[in-house]
Amino acid sequence: xxxxxxxxxxxxxxxxxxxxxxxxxxxxxxxxxxxxxxxxxxxxxxxxxxxxxxxxxxxxxxxxxxxxxxxxxxxxxxxxxxxxxxxxxxxxxxxxxxxxxxxxxxxxxxxxxxxxxxxxxxxxxxxxxxxxxxxxxxxxxxxxxxxxxxxxxxxxxxxxxxxxxxxxxxxxxxxxxxxxxxxxxxxxxxxxxxxxxxxxxxxxxxxxxxxxxxxxxxxxxxxxxxxxxxxxxxxxxxxxxxxxxxxxxxxxxxxxxxxxxxxxxxxxxxxxxxxxxxxxxxxxxxxxxxxxxxxxxxxxxxxxxxxxxxxxxxxxxxxxxxxxxxxxxxxxxxxxxxxxxxxxxxxxxxxxxxxxxxxxxxxxxxxxxxxxxxxxxxxxxxxxxxxxxxxxxxxxxxxxxxxxxxxxxxxxxxxxxxxxxxxxxxxxxxxxxxxxxxxxxxxxxxxxxxxxxxxxxxxxxxxxxxxxxxxxxxxxxxxxxxxxxxxxxxxxxxxxxxxxxxxxxxxxxxxxxxxxxxxxxxxxxxxxxxxxxxxxxxxxxxxxxxxxxxxxxxxxxxxxxxxxxxxxxxxxxxxxxxxxxxxxxxxxxxxxxxxxxxxxxxxxxxxxxxxxxxxxxxxxxxxxxxxxxxxxxxxxxxxxxxxxxxxxxxxxxxxxxxxxxxxxxxxxxxxxxxxxxxxxxxxxxxxxxxxxxxxxxxxxxxxxxxxxxxxxxxxxxxxxxxxxxxxxxxxxxxxxxxxxxxxxxxxxxxxxxxxxxxxxxxxxxxxxxxxxxxxxxxxxxxxxxxxxxxxxxx
Length: 794
Fold this sequence. Notes:
Elements lengths: L1 H13 L7 H4 L5 H6 L7 H20 L7 H35 L12 H50 L9 H8 L3 H21 L5 H33 L4 H31 L6 H28 L13 H7 L1 H23 L3 H35 L9 H23 L2 H35 L5 H10 L3 H29 L6 H12 L2 H6 L6 H26 L7 H27 L7 H31 L7 E4 L2 E8 L3 E5 L5 E5 H6 L3 E2 L8 E9 L5 H13 L11 E8 L2 E10 L5 H18 L12
């Protein structure tokens, strides 16, 4: 048993390698064969090889007897689907070319109507035969892809069933010696499987350590170790230097430093793993068992690297001022050693369990390994929680203000404590798989939440920096888009908010579709499987089209703004159109332009208009119930801009509101009153209600009338002459029509005289009446004529 364990440790040291399903990739058609010819050719033997590859996957899936043994086959099925997609994509140009060539030749003429040359008939027959073969091949590839997609669904169902059965499976308690007997005294079958595994390792090592290869192998292994240790430090220092010296001081620099630290750890580890993999497989590929183990071991390594890298980036114990989360220094120092301890423990223990899974050992061995993992993780996490609690109590005793913490940190501490309590009870009662599942999910939740927290902070700080008017990027955007500081702030908040909402959604999905051992590629595939369902496939939205859509939107908005500035400042002022007409044309151009940009963006996104019937249906229902007013105002706005019963600058009166039209928008019209306040009137009211347009004729005159009451003992002719002289001497009162005085009313209280004059514009009526009233009262006082006093009520 001691020799077997020594060989097993040798396995852990040798197989620090990423997975490479070379056995499966070898069954694909060689890419060099397709590269030599102008168009790819897929033979029947290639299709048979793909079918055999799929059958082998099905056989491997049917032989799995636990949850973890289905992780590797699921990845291979997804890789199979990608390979089939590549082959189908390579055949599509050939199919299109043959279709065009047949279209040029045209359909065969009816017998007796026309005759063709023999070479054209032969060419049409040859092209038709080739197209039929390509169509049949594409149909076979589509069937293989559908079969693989169905297999993915079946794997998900099998894994769900196995997970439920394993979580509810009751075994011996960890306190029972019978639980540990499979590890202490393995069965002969398990010993034989382990010996076979060690034998394969020895054969692989013998190939690598062959005569003449010692120096090369040692150099490659040393290179990998240097990249993993000193390379990580150099990469982290280099990225730190770039962040400090090339980024402005502020929040973006702090979040970029944390992101650079995590990126350096992950990138150098990946490079080191690939160098080691090349060192061990440069002569011969791994056997199927070792390839399966290598795939799973790679996932475990990346999970452990994420734990250490994210913890180092977020805790930042060496530089507390760089720390992103609000963690006190004593708490950060208390947490510092535990991520490395946890990652090392998981790397060793999970690797040993993966050996049992890859070799197909008995379920007793697998359950015992799960129990060991759950117990070790439980001990590490509980110790960490106790240390954190101790540090916080010390801070409280020292009256440290930062000891209070936040609500979120309290929730995390409570959830972790409850999870560890449930895991401990599960171990004591014999539900080992449940305990392992809880501990795994806790670690996976930490990885997901920490990673997405770091991404959210980086994107948030980047948006604030890019759209800040104090930096060069913000100034360039202001000049490019023609917007102000307030618009930049709004754009920053909107982009940051949408990005954070999207990342939070992805984080929630990642918590449920992933787990320890899930690679980034597999996690992305699972997320796309959820987000990119049948609805998005019908809309033909492809992730590769997103960049084109964003560019089309940005360029379109910039062009519309630039053209509108050119219309407003250069072209329209040089025409004979009045300012109101110019404003209407500019607004109409913007509305049509933005609608066209939206259509162009959707087209760049890959949306097919034939698949948007459901949007039209939804809009129809919405218009019928709640959007009819909005649509009515929108249509009315278009009528106002085209028919122009009113225009910008007109003086109108509607529903007791009188003022100048300031702007005609798509939904409503802005009317500026005499006190400079703005009244928003829906466009539908301007179309459906009675409206007085004072300036529509272009030559409207204002009427300045004053109605004055005098005592009965005055001389009417004297007062009349006085009033007419005051009007005639005013500069704003027109000579034609001439002002006049009318005897309006005779009552016991006095004589009512109305004097009327015309001014050039209705807009100056108020000012003119005020000036005339001052002048009339001045002249009446000089002449000794007083106005009648109102009679006192009895």
